[in-house]
Write a structure and sequence with these properties.
- Keywords: Coiled coil, Membrane, Transmembrane, Transmembrane helix.
- It is a single chain.
- By secondary structure, the chain is an alpha+beta fold.
- The protein has three domains: about 100 residues, no CATH class; about 140 residues; about 170 residues, no CATH class.
- Helix content is about 70%, strand content about 10%.
- The chain has 14 helices and six strands.
- It has a four-stranded antiparallel β-sheet. It has a two-stranded antiparallel sheet with strand order 2-3.
- β2 and β3 form a beta hairpin.
- It is rod-shaped and about 215 Å long.
- The two termini are about 35 Å apart.
C-alpha cells in the first residue's frame, strides 16, 4: 500500500492544476482522449480499503483450495520399476549327416522400424487383462487398481513403469503384481504361439509323411517289376552290356580272321574245308596207303617199260593195264571213303607227299577254330541282343526309379528337416515376443508422490504475487496515464 501511495503521490503532483488545464484544452481544442482523463480524486482510505478487500478475496480464492487440497487429499505413493529389452538376435543350426540341415534364426527385436517392441509391450502392460490379472492376485476390484504409467526412454530398450498406491507397501505390491501378470501373459502368448506353430508344423509334417510314404510305395512296386534296387544296378548292367558288345566285336573280328584264313587254304588246296577232313582221313588209312604204294609201283613199272619198249609193246600195254587198274581202284576207294565224285577225286592229287597233308591239316584245324569262333560270336551276339532289348525295355523304368528315388530323398530330407526345424523352433521362444528383463525391481517409495506440498505452496505464492502485481498496476494506472498525456502535450506545445 505504501508503494501504491507513493506512486499516486508522484504521478498526482499538481493534479488539480493539470486536470483543469487539460479539461480546458480538451474543451477548447477538441482533445480526442478526453474520456481517459481522471475524474475527481476520491478518498485515499476508501480506495485502500477497496483494494485491500479485493486482495483478501483473491487470497481466499487462491489459498482456500490449496489448503483444502493439502488437508483433505490422501497421500499416494509411487513404486517404480524398469524393464529392458536386449537388442541382439539369436540363431541355431543343426546339421544331420546324410539327412539335411535345420536352421532357426531369430532377428533382433529392433532390426526393423515397422514394429517397435517397446510400444508393443507398453500397450500390453496397460491392457485390461493385465490389470484384471493383477487385481485378482491382490484380491482387489479392478476399479480400485489404477492403470500403470509407462515411460519409454528414447533410443533405448528401457521401459519405466510407475504404479501408485495408498501406502508404500501397497504401491510396491501393486507394481509386483503388474510385473508378475505381465510376465505370465508373455509366457502365455509365447506358449500359444508355439502351440499354433506346432499345429501348423504337424499338419505340414503329415503331408510330408504322406508324400514320402506314397513315393516309397511307388519305388517298391517299380523295384519288384524291374528287379533293380537302385539306379546303380541298371548302370552296372549297361556297363556289362557295353563290355559284352566289345567282346562280341572282338569275337567277330576273330571269326573274320579265321574265315579269311580258311578261305585262303581252300583256294590253295582247291578243296572245301568240309571235304578236307575226309581227304586227310583217307591219307591216314593204311589200306588206302597200300593201294597208293601199289599204284606207285605200277606207275614206276609203266615208266620203265616205256623207256625200253614202244607204246604198243605187249609189256608196255600190260604195265599200262595194271596201272589203270590200280588207279581205278584208288579212285573207287577215294570215292567210297570221301564221298567225292570221280571227277573231283581224279582232280585231286592223291599223293600224301609234300606239304599237301600239312596244308590239309591246317585247313581242318583252321576250320575247327573258325567254327569255334563262329559259335562264340553267335552266342555273344545273341546274348548282346537280348541284353540290349532288355535294357531298352527297362531303361524308362530305371529312369522312373531314379526319379522316384530322388523324389524320395528330397521328400525324406524335407520331412526330416521339417521335424528338426519344428523341434529347433521350440527353443526360439522369443521370436515374436522378445526377451524382456527386469532392470529395476519394484521399488519401495520412501515418501509420498502426491500431494506435492512444496509445489502447491509455490504455486499459491506465485498466484498471490500475480494478484499483487495486478492490483499495483490498477492503483497506479491513472497517474501513469496523466503523466504520459502531459508529456505528449508538452512536446506538442
Amino acid at each position: 500500500m505504501a508503494f501504491l501511495a507513493a506512486s499516486s503521490k508522484i504521478f498526482g503532483k499538481n493534479e488539480a492544476t493539470k486536470v483543469s488545464l487539460k479539461q480546458s484544452k480538451a474543451v477548447n481544442n477538441g482533445y480526442p482522449n478526453a474520456q481517459f482523463l481522471p475524474r475527481k480524486p476520491r478518498n485515499f482510505f476508501w480506495r485502500c480499503s477497496r483494494y485491500t478487500t479485493f486482495f483478501l478475496m483473491w487470497c481466499a480464492g487462491i489459498w482456500m483450495p490449496i489448503f483444502t487440497y493439502l488437508t483433505t487429499t490422501p497421500p499416494k505413493y509411487t513404486s517404480q520399476m524398469a524393464l529392458i529389452l536386449p537388442g541382439s538376435g539369436a540363431s541355431a543350426s543343426v546339421n544331420l549327416e546324410s539327412i539335411g540341415q535345420a536352421s532357426s534364426y531369430a532377428s533382433s527385436a529392433f532390426a526393423t522400424d515397422s514394429v517397435s517392441p517397446t510400444q508393443t509391450y507398453k500397450r500390453l502392460i496397460t491392457a485390461n487383462r493385465i490389470r484384471l490379472a493383477a487385481a485378482l492376485s491382490l484380491d482387489l476390484p479392478v476399479t480400485e487398481l489404477p492403470a500403470p504409467v509407462i515411460d519409454l526412454v528414447d533410443q533405448t530398450g528401457l521401459i519405466r513403469v510407475q504404479m501408485k498406491g495408498p501406502s508404500a507397501q501397497e504401491a510396491q505390491l501393486r507394481a509386483e503384481a503388474i510385473l508378475q501378470a505381465f510376465q505370465s501373459e508373455l509366457t502365455l502368448l509365447r506358449n500359444d504361439e508355439l502351440s499354433m506353430r506346432e499345429q501348423s508344423a504337424v499338419s505340414a509334417i503329415e503331408e510330408y509323411r504322406s508324400s514320402v510314404a506314397a513315393t516309397r510305395i511307388d519305388i517298391d512296386r517299380l523295384q519288384q517289376e524291374t528287379g533293380f534296387l537302385s539306379k546303380d544296378q541298371f548302370s552296372a548292367q549297361v556297363r556289362d552290356n557295353d563290355a559284352l558288345r566289345v567282346l562280341t566285336e572282338n569275337a567277330q573280328a576273330r571269326l573274320l580272321e579265321k574265315t579269311a584264313y580258311v578261305s585262303a587254304l581252300e583256294a590253295t588246296l582247291g578243296l572245301p574245308a568240309a571235304k578236307a577232313a575226309r581227304v586227310l582221313n583217307l591219307y591216314s588209312d593204311n589200306n588206302y596207303l597200300t593201294y597208293v604204294k601199289d599204284a606207285s609201283d605200277k606207275a614206276a613199272l609203266l615208266t620203265e617199260m616205256r623207256s625200253h619198249y614202244g607204246s604198243q609193246h605187249p609189256r608196255v600195254l600190260e604195265a599200262k593195264a595194271q596201272h589203270d587198274l590200280a588207279q581205278g581202284t584208288l579212285v573207287t576207294i577215294a570215292v567210297a571213303r570221301t564221298g567225292l565224285t570221280e571227277p573231283e577225286v581224279i582232280g585231286l592229287e592223291m599223293s600224301q607227299r609234300g606239304d599237301r597233308t600239312a596244308l590239309l591239316a591246317d585247313l581242318v584245324r583252321a576250320e575247327a577254330e573258325r567254327q569255334g569262333a563262329n559259335a562264340e560270336y553267335q552266342t555273344l551276339h545273341k546274348r548282346c541282343l537280348e541284353e540290349r532289348q532288355k535294357l531298352e525295355i527297362i531303361a524308362p523304368m530305371a529312369a522312373r526309379l531314379e526319379d522316384l528315388q530322388r523324389d524320395f530323398r528330397v521328400s525324406e530330407a524335407v520331412f526330416t528337416s521339417a521335424i528338426a526345424r519344428g523341434q529347433s523352433s521350440k527353443i526360439d521362444v522369443y521370436a515374436s515376443y522378445p526377451l524382456v528383463q527386469v532392470l529395476e525391481a519394484p521399488s519401495l517409495p520412501l515418501k509420498p508422490s502426491s500431494p506435492r506440498r512444496m509445489l502447491t505452496i509455490a504455486a499459491g505464492v506465485a498466484a498471490t504475487l500475480c494478484v499483487m502485481v495486478a492490483l499495483a498496476m490498477g492503483w497506479a494506472r491513472f497517474g501513469m496515464i496523466n503523466w504520459l498525456i502531459a508529456r505528449r502535450e508538452e512536446r506538442s506545445a
